[in-house]
């Protein structure tokens, strides 16, 4: 099967290929994806300019140096990909995941981060356990003397017809996708308020909170993401006076293990989704790192209460 090399902003030492190379400045990195999966011709990204070879020439407002963050759902998938980019930007990143032991991908990322200014750490935390969540975030804030923000990426999905949902089905999904996000943001914001430190919180919602997904029956999931979008606006309103900005990232369809499972459950879904956005393909997790770094960093200092949609034009038809 033909493959392409996808340009992204991660340093070579932070990819999950298992090859750990010592670097002193960010360099262009590539991940391999199936060209049939992405619906692109080889070399489709050739016109993209690689990142600057030296951080000294980088736009300083995108730096996260000297800052500490929490990433829920950061042990794998989109959350881990975002955490890797944050490490490259200089942050101390604490990843929460419900797995007892880190996923193999996380171990590679942690080893690679030893050569970088930032660092990445794993914590076995289930966002549904509020007491443990609060204690762990408080400990992190005490360790660093500060906490500068959050990326709330923990989430689950259930493909099921609306008429087949039970109250427990809905409660289980909302407990992670909405309540877990809400309580994670609360715990981080409380620490930021105690230290009187401004910062940024990014809640991972979805374009699915704005539209109905053709061919995929997941009403509770979509409703949970719509709730996160509205939560973003309300938290931004309440916490703005403390210098805490709150924004939502609304991704389009991404190639992740969770989505691959959807494709197995619903024949033809992948082809349907590829046709529904203006780029004619699905996204890779790395394509959301730039937007997230922007929202976390001083580059977006006057942005709050917003929903940044990154969906290949899906919702713009």
UniProtKB/TrEMBL annotation:
One of its GO terms (molecular function) is oxidoreductase activity, acting on NAD(P)H, oxygen as acceptor. InterPro entries: NAD(P)-bd_dom_sf, Sc_DH/Rdtase_CS, SDR_fam. It holds the Pfam family adh_short_C2. GO terms for biological process: secondary metabolite biosynthetic process. Keywords: NADP, Oxidoreductase. Signal peptide: none annotated. Belongs to the short-chain dehydrogenases/reductases (SDR) family. This is D-arabinitol 2-dehydrogenase [ribulose-forming]. It comes from Aspergillus lentulus. The lineage of its organism: Eukaryota, Fungi, Dikarya, Ascomycota, Pezizomycotina.
